[in-house]
Amino acid sequence: MLTALKRIVQEVNQIPVLDDALNCLADRLREALKVDSCSIYLADYEQQHFLLFATEGLAKSAVGQVRIGFSEGLVGLTAQREEPINISDAHHHPRFKHFPEVKEDDYHAFLGAPIIHQRKVLGVLTLQQKLKRRFSEDEEAFLVTLAMQLAVEIANAKARGSINLLQENIPKDWQKAVQGIPGSSGLAVGFGYIQNLLVNIRNHLPKRSSHTQQEIQHYRQAVKKTQEDMAVLSDRVQGEVPDDVQAIFQLYHHLLDANSLGRDVEKEIKKGWDAPTSLKMVIESFIRQFQCMNDAYMRERAVDIEDMGNRVLANIIGISANEPISREPHDQTILIAEEVTAVMLAEFPSEKLVGIISIRGSNNSHAAIMARAMGVPAVMGLDNVPIAMLRDKEILLDGYTGDVIVSPNGTIRHEFDQLILEEKLLSERIHSEDTLPAVTKDNCTMSLLVNSGLSLETEVSTNPFSDGVGLFRTEIPFMMRQRFPTEQEQVELYKGLLESEPNKQFTMRTLDVGGDKPLAYFPIVEENPFLGWRGIRLTLDHPEIFLVQIRAMLRASFDLDNLNIMLPMITSVSEVSEAKRLIRQAFNEVEEEAEEKGVRLTMPQIGVMLEVPAVLYQLPQLAKIVDFFSVGSNDLTQYLLAVDRNNARVAGLYDSYHPAVLSALHSIAKTSDSLQVPVTVCGELAGEPGGVVLLVAMGYRKLSMNTHNLLKVKWIIRNIYQNEAEQLLAKVVTLNNPGDVRSEVNLFLETSGLGGLVRAGN
Questions:
Q1: Where in the sequence numbering do the catalytic residues fall?
Q2: What are φ and ψ of residue 528, in 5° steps?
């Protein structure tokens, strides 16, 4: 049965239209299991019913016509129970409902399996038999397995709007809404732009065309051009490469022959597809065939098949293979990538950037944190949305909700523009009080610092309205180079930063790479990088890296006394002791240089990041050997909840409002106060409106956040009462669900006149 399952899934996966794929599935499944009928019903949550979408065995005329309510019949029962329903005689079951249109009077045995994706029932897959019998356990397991795989395909199809997108003539007012994960708050209107998008069979969006002869002509001309290109390449390497490499050109020549690839491509064109889509379908079919071959050499030829397909596709489109589809970015550009990186943002003109869409990632992935630091609205984790669907389209991006609207109609666009205007007016109100102190209405004074280091240019000044830098991410300069920066390069960078605000404290975190912050020139390959070799673990194993960085920091601080050093990813007291030993060693070395130059060198304060749950139980011991604590709420949340914060599939489980996270944060504040050790929160929670209210209530008096959020946080603090925040905290700590906590916090913000900071509109 496993072989049959693989064959069915493989065949269905290569069909780009959901309707056709489900019809094929129904036919192949009925044939594989030798049953009389196989049907697929898909859920319509707006209408609260299941629609018969495909069938082999029931009346074809019923497809698209029969609607079964969510609480009706055996299909509804299967969905309600969210498990298989296996009945030997369906007609005598109390939940059986007769639908004359489907003509199932002769069927008795019924097996239904729910199609579930991320806890949501998308549909029901059914088998029926005329014979009165219970389906076997093997048949039931087979159907459940297939339903699980089918769920992903249906979710993908819905996400990319495959039915609409495959129409030849899409109306001008057609729009498509897709849902992602809020990455950075704010609203943006712009045009989708993809940097360095290569011509690639995999990226091509299927399209239909009724101009059959024209598409065939386009294809034949492209093949002719590809054959000419291949002949030139073959002649160029003649005698310079081994025979087996030369044989690849013969493979290309054979496949490009009209009686090979051409016959199949033109057959698809005659079915109503355009030339690029027909090529895509045939090439991907060939790739799968080669990948399934027993011979290793032939399996490797799948790569060559794809390369050849890309070359033909490029010639159909009219550009060179492996050449980026390059266009000048629009003045209002929404940058789109499979995963947005620091380098990508560095290369992009910031004056044209209005929004970011990262197909992968979650609300606390590195890309989202960068977007928030830049004050650019962002949506992450648009899983299953083909990136080409967004290219060159007008897009409305809502960073509060994660909504992305492609090709909006006039009414939606007008409403969105109104929300942007309201957001602008609120921003002006916030900036009107930028010089006022961060003091609550009942006189609780807060110290606000900034997180820096994500700027893609060398930062030479901090926010003038901040009390200093609570976190400087030293890893970014390392990531932007092709090698480790020299000690002198680091000295020059750090010196400029420390001198820019000599009267404000400046906390530099030692190199924190690994996890989602790799170094291209020092690759670390691990199955679980977030639990692996990162942060202090790496630098203690490589003291030559650690010592160079510490010496650079110390040399940069000559005649200054505003340097603090912070150690990341601390798990044990022994790590801190070893790090302090190396810091003392570096200090002694640099002290000699300071004496020779006649300059003053001050031993910086040493602190640790509280982000690994283990240290929460070692605070008294750590308090004896460090000067301050800093809570990294991003990683602390990740490790407490055992959730990879970059994984969109489990992004819903990552929530700083989880009762366990709030309890840990509250405990840290109380313990730090009793130990008389200063504590700062430098994670993203410190710059999030609801998070600020809860942190004030817990007793934190120093918060560090990205520059863009600092004035918003000050505005929040100036518009709340500490005692009311404490009442809110007392209420939410009794709640069990993060969603309930968020609702209570948002209600508090609304009643305090601060709702415009957590949703669109003033």
A1: 366, 682
A2: -135, 80
